[in-house]
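Board notes, transcribed. Complex of a protein with beta-D-mannopyranose.
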Amino acid sequence: MKLQRCPVNPILLPDPASDWECYNVFNPAVIHHDGLFHMFYRAQGLDWISRIGCAVSADGAHWNRLRRPVLEPTDGTDCRGIEDPRVTEIDGVFWMTYTAYGREFHGPGEPTHAGGGILPMIARSHNLITWERLGPIVRGEDNKDHVLFPRKIGGRYTVLHRRWPQVWLAYSDDMLTWREDDMAPIYGPREDNTWDRKSVGSNGPPIETPHGWLLLNHGYDEDHIYRLGVLLLDLDDPTRVINRPSDPIFWPEELWELRGDVPNVVFSCANPVVDGTVYVYYGAADHVIGLATGRLDELLDFALHGA
Ligand code: BMA
C-alpha cells in the first residue's frame, strides 16, 4: 500500500511578496465542510515566527488563500510561534489543536521545543475564521502532536497526544480539564529494525471505520527520514491497538521533499475523507505543501491485514 502523489504538487508554495509567509508554508490542517476544503497552514516569514494562514479549495488541489493570517501569537505562551495545526469537527463545532511555542516555561536554561517551552493548545471556532483559545491539555512537559477524535467516546471528548516517546490518550468532559487519571499510553517507537524506531507521532484526526479507528501516523529512524504509516485502534477502547503494519505508506522521494528547510520530511496533520478517498496533506521538507491520496477501503484493508 502506497499513497499516490497529486499531479499538481506541490499544491502550496511560500509567497515571496509576503512578509509573514515568504519562507515556508507547511504542516497544514485541512477539513472538508459544505463542499469546500478549508486549509489552515503553518507559515514562516521575515521574523521566522509561525502563524496560521487560511486557504480554500473546491477540488482539494487548487487553492485560494487569504491575505492575512487567521491565528497569530498573542502573548508569552506562543510568542515564538503557532505550529502544526490539526482541525477536527465535532457536532458542528470546529476545534484546532496546535503547538504554542513560547517563552513561558518551567525548565532550566532557555526554552526549547523539548524543554517545556511548548504547550499543546486547543482553540475553538464556529466559522473557521475566528478562533478562541481555550488552553493546553497539560503544562510543563514535552508534549505536542495532539489531535482530537471526531466524536466523543464513552461520552467524553477524546484526544491523542504525545508524551515523548509514547503516543497517549486523554479524555475530557469540557475540553478544558484533562485529568491525569484519564490518560494512558498507547504505543511508541518500535524496537525492531523499522522506519519508526526513533520517534512517532499522530497525523490528522482518527478516521472512524466499522473495524476501528484508522490512524495515520509519522515516525523516523536515526537517519531522521520522516515516513507515514497506519494503525487500527479499538472503537470503544482506543488504547487497544488492533493492528500496526510494519511497512510505511509514504516517504520522501521528490526533490522538494528531500531538500528544503529541513531535509527528508513528509509531515502530515490532515487526512480528510471525501467520496471514499483519503486526502493526505503534508508539509514537505518544512518548506512547501504536498498532497497524496489513497482509497479508504485499501488503507483500511492494509491497516487490518498488513503485517
Ligand atoms: C517536528 C515538528 C514539525 C516538523 C518536523 C520536521 O518535530 O516540529 O513541525 O515538521 O519536526 O522538522
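The two ends are 12 Å apart (CA to CA). The chain has a mean pLDDT of 96.
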